[in-house]
Amino acid sequence: MTAYDYVIVGGGTAGCVLAARLTEDPSITVAVIEGGPSDVGDEKILNLRNWINLLETEYDYDYPTVEQPRGNSHIRHSRAKVLGGCSSHNTLICFKPLPQDLDDWGHGWTWDAVGPYYDKVQLNIIPVVEKDRNPIAKDFVAAAQKAVDVPEIDNFNAAPFEDGVGFFSIAYHPEKNNQRSSASTAYVHPILERRNLTLLLNTWAGRIEFDGNRAIGVHTDKGYIEADKEVLLCAGAIDTPRLMMLSGIGDAEHLSSIGIEPKHDLPGVGENLLDHPESVIVWETTKPLPENSVMDSDAGLFIRRDESDPRPDLMFHFYQIPFTTNTERLGYPAVEHGVCMTPNIPRPHSKGRLWLKSSDPEEKPALDFGYFVNPDGYDEQTLVDGFRIARQIAEQEPLKSWLKREIAPGPDVTSDEALSEYGRRAAHTVYHPAGTCAIGSVVDGDLKVIGLEGLRVVDASVFPTMPTVNPMVTVLMIGERAADLIKEA
């Protein structure tokens, strides 16, 4: 069968939700085009703690960034090449978006409209269970409470929060040897026998086919797949705009300049590239750490510096491993036993764009996140503030006794200028690209591509602004709401 009611491009976080919800109607046929393999039975994927070993492997599209004059030009953006997408590849830290994050979006995407969809999300989202609470992470939580006077939060998803420290909520199964609860395991594995669902794995989508201004199918490396109702783009904030541009949808002048015939002039495609950048401060520990953990970054901290906004504006992940990929490149030593705090910018002021370098579908697009380019200096000041707060926490018992010495940037790096310079050069991504097909500029409030028919975008590329928190649950909620919008059409 090569014709289906709905063709979903991308079997990732949102694509799995749509596949499950749309095939609840046995009269509806759905095909999912996924560039990677299945995750069924693949312990490399299903073992959550193995996430870091998936980077730059056959499961990773591994996108470089263009030169970042004020940031780190060596960042590689991991994008998952496997069923379940980044939910099969990431740490599965799960946050319900904060109400104001959604109210900022407009076009009907308000907290009142979207918030209830959290209750439909099928992943097994729970706070880290006691057996997985590493002693040093517990002591980080206790030290942070004392050092910066924030409450300990038992469940970050129980209610909106202004600040706080605690163990994250993570989508996993403690009773199943800490296996992932991903979009694929939660939504697709239980329905693999549905006869109206077809998974086209290891299949690359190269171009959308149109009849006039209506999307009618997708050309892949395995043949043409026809869509009788809609083509649903769920390939993520890099590959969704990439496919649109390869299909002639985007800035007409740019497309013409690289030999692609413009089908629909839509300059917003690829613009508004968002991310959550963070940097790192590393300590060597006095001894090896206990082994228990979910995924080695199980606890975190939120600070609210701007009291005019109800949301936190500085975040930390606490790594129970020495995450030194970027610091070693700068000449700092590796350590056998260590921990990190990673000051993170929840709502950065800098943003970027992506574009095609040629009409060759095999060539990776150019990604320019514009890290730290906003002249107001907000983003880099957030890192500087974060380093100072991290050092306060490190000086506080019970964490202090674990720490032997600060490795990077080192205790002699103290001025704002030096901390900013180090912080930007050692910065990395939390792998949260978003925004490149934003609601209001590329898609409308129903997620339909503006000016076209039969084509919707359902993934993180529709974010107009970045949520404060890790965005995977927001993508799941978008998928759930999009399924209802599609059914109502």
TrEMBL record:
<feature type="domain" description="Glucose-methanol-choline oxidoreductase N-terminal">
    <location>
        <begin position="236"/>
        <end position="250"/>
    </location>
</feature>
<dbReference type="Pfam" id="PF05199">
    <property type="entry name" value="GMC_oxred_C"/>
</dbReference>
<dbReference type="InterPro" id="IPR000172">
    <property type="entry name" value="GMC_OxRdtase_N"/>
</dbReference>
<dbReference type="InterPro" id="IPR012132">
    <property type="entry name" value="GMC_OxRdtase"/>
</dbReference>
<dbReference type="InterPro" id="IPR036188">
    <property type="entry name" value="FAD/NAD-bd_sf"/>
</dbReference>
<protein>
    <submittedName>
        <fullName>GMC family oxidoreductase N-terminal domain-containing protein</fullName>
    </submittedName>
</protein>
<dbReference type="InterPro" id="IPR007867">
    <property type="entry name" value="GMC_OxRtase_C"/>
</dbReference>
<dbReference type="Pfam" id="PF00732">
    <property type="entry name" value="GMC_oxred_N"/>
</dbReference>
<comment type="similarity">
    <text>Belongs to the GMC oxidoreductase family.</text>
</comment>
